[in-house]
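Chain A, query sequence.
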Amino acid sequence: METVNVHEAKTHFSKLLERVHSGEEIIIAKAGKPYAKLVPLGREMKERVPGIADGAVTDAFFEPLPESEIEKWES
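Chain A, predicted structure.
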């Protein structure tokens, strides 16, 4: 991942966008400190549909975890 300063980013913004579009991630630095990151957009998110899991969650989902499982999370 390359870091470029603000001046370079302003001067070469179109080229940086092309690189990001091809999959690179680029850090923009201000006064030598990371300030922002240019990243490619992921695939468009599909619209969420309320109730899509209706009936898929059983009462067992809400039961307490066994002690052996809790120990794994707490260690």
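Residues 23 and 40 are 6 Å apart (CA to CA). The beta strands are 2-5, 26-30, 33-38.
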